[in-house]
Structures are given as C-alpha cells and as structure tokens.
Amino acid sequence: MTHVGGKGEFDQLLREHAGLLSRIAASYEADRALRDDLLQDMALALWRALPSWRGDAPLRAFVARVAHNRGATHVIGQMRRPVGGELSEDWAESRHGPDGHAELEQRRVHLQDAVRRLPLSLRQAVTLALEGFSHAEIADTLGITANSVGVRLSRAKAALKAVLGDGQ
Amino acid sequence: MTAQGNDWSQWGALWRDQPAIDVARLRRDAARKRWRMRVFVALEIAMSLVAFGSCLWRMMTTSGRWQLWSGASLLLVILLQILYLHVRRGTWRASGQDVRSLQQLTIVRAKAGIRLARINLWSTLAWTVFTLLISAPELEPSRWQADHRLRLMLTLQVAVNGPLILATVALCAWYIRRQRKRIESVGAMGLSEDAPAHRI
C-alpha cells in the first residue's frame, strides 16, 4: 500500500504535479486571481483526499480526478460559464520575451479559451486527453465508460475544430 | 493516449507547454487558507457554545415566562448552528464524486439550504415577536421611565439585537435568492452524457 501523507511528501507531490494542476485550473477559470484561488482549493482538496489514495490507480490520475472535481465544484459554485480569457501580460511573458513566439502564445490562449467554453463533461475528458491520458485512464478518472469517453472526445474534437480551425 | 489523430497530438503539445504555477507560493497560500478556515470554524464553535451555554444557564436560573423565552432562544441557536453547518458542508466536501453527482448533490443541498434558511428566517421573526410579547410588562413606558437600569438594558438590547435581527433576515433572503439562482444555473448546465455538444 502506498501512502503520501507527510508534509515533505506533499510538497514533492505538488511540485511534480504543478503543471497538471495549473492546466486543469486554467481549463476552469480564465480570471488569474480566481484561478489562483482555485489552485489553492485544489491543493487543499488534494491534501484532504490523499489519505484515501491506496495506490490502486496511478497518482497522476488521482491528482487529476481530485483537481477536476474541485474545478467542477468551482464552476457550479460560481454559477457561470467561464468567459473567454484575455491574454494577461504576466501569463504571456512568463515563457517568452516580448518579441518571441507571440504566435505560439496566441494559439495556446485560443486553445485555452476554446477548452474553457466546452460543456463541463466534455471539458474534463478533453483536458485529460490533452494531458496524454489514455481512454481507459480517462474513463477511470471520471468514473465513466470508455465508450462515453470516445463519444465525448469525438464531440469535443468537432467543437474545438469549429473554433480553432484546421491550422491549430 | 489512444490515437486520435494529429489534432490531439498538436493540441496536446500546445496544451502541455503552458507555464506552471510557483509551487512554493501555492503551498504558502494553501497553508494560510487552511489555517484561516480552522480559525473561523473554531471561532464559530466557540460563539455557538457561548450562546448555547448562556441560553441553557438562563433556562435553569429563571422561571415562568423568561424560562420559556430561554428555551425558545436555545432552540433558535441550535437551528442557526444546523444552518451554518449545512452551508459549510460544501466547502469541506470530499472529492470523490463525478460531475453529474456533484450537480445533483448541489441541487439537493441548495433545496435543503432554502428550507433551512426559511426556517431560520421565520423562526427569527417569531423569536422577535415572542420576545416582545414575553417582555411586554417591562416595555410599559411607566416601567422603564421610572427605572434607569431597565431603560439602559432595553436600549442596549435594541441597539445590539435590532441590527442582528435585520442582518439575519437580510442574510436569509439573500441566501434563498442565491440558492434559487444556483438551482436554475446548475439545471441549465446540461451535463447529461447523452446531451448534444454545446456550441462554443
């Protein structure tokens, strides 16, 4: 039985999954301040949920599941569909200089916006697929069948292509 | 990931290239939030215990109409505590459900919250009327005009309890309206697995 309970271990877990958590939070909240709050909530939810992880599923899937549940709670709690996010300066400049890779950044923001505007059930499957989860892992994480995963991803793909076009 | 074509691969690469949050800051903020929640809960429990003890003590040391009043107040304190615990449940919820379960849970809790808020609202109003009836003899102008201490106590009661009662009524009305909107909003989210995809 695996157990991640200590403070140091929890910090390590946060460090290892910071990217995954940040991206899942970004799929639920466009506003930077609210996204930070959501990330804190996700970290708290993880801290509380970790004792229930028995190592029967990959830790990454467990983290994604907890984060998605917290994200869904956030959306339900906020009572709104997230609006399309604008490109905040620190977000954009955190990886690229002012004149570097602007087009790539723009494409990434468009993708974030498009994912955020998906209905919740599709959005969760999409973010996991984008993280590289297999259909079986997505099904396991979301508690749905592999067939449902296929249906959701197929619908989501059509919706994303309609917005992003073939060039993305 | 099973093959979903080039689109998923390209989108995935783009997606995973997003910047990650500063973990040290996240940990600090989360720890601060955790402590704040604990402090709030501790304060709330302490205040409830003080209110509960005070009502119980009054019930045991008074008699007649004031004993009845203390009993009613004790009941109101308990009702309020149930409402606060109910409202807080959402923030302490364990993360184990899927989205549709969360949706259903939210609706069920919102409805229960509305019921509790109504109970709280009407019991507060009833408690106010009941208090006025119980203290009718002391409210006679001839009594408090002649008694300086009674006048001071009544002034204090009105100054403290008046705003508290108004705030409770306003809070309940706001909470009921908010829960109604939440039910409408969650119902309109269309999380059914078989529902057609929303247009972006």
From TrEMBL, chain A:
Keywords: Sigma factor, Transcription, Transcription regulation. SUPFAM superfamilies: Sigma2 domain of RNA polymerase sigma factors, Sigma3 and sigma4 domains of RNA polymerase sigma factors. Gene3D superfamilies: 1.10.1740.10, Winged helix-like DNA-binding domain superfamily/Winged helix DNA-binding domain. Residues 111-160 form the RNA polymerase sigma factor 70 region 4 type domain. Residues 13-71 form the RNA polymerase sigma-70 region domain. GO terms for molecular function: DNA binding; sigma factor activity. The keyword Transcription regulation applies. GO terms for biological process: DNA-templated transcription initiation. Belongs to the sigma-70 factor family. ECF subfamily. This is Sigma-70 family RNA polymerase sigma factor. It comes from Dyella solisilvae.
From TrEMBL, chain B:
Keywords: Membrane, Transmembrane, Transmembrane helix. The chain crosses the membrane at residues 37-60, 66-87, 119-136, 156-176. It comes from the Bacteria. This is Uncharacterized protein. It comes from Dyella solisilvae.
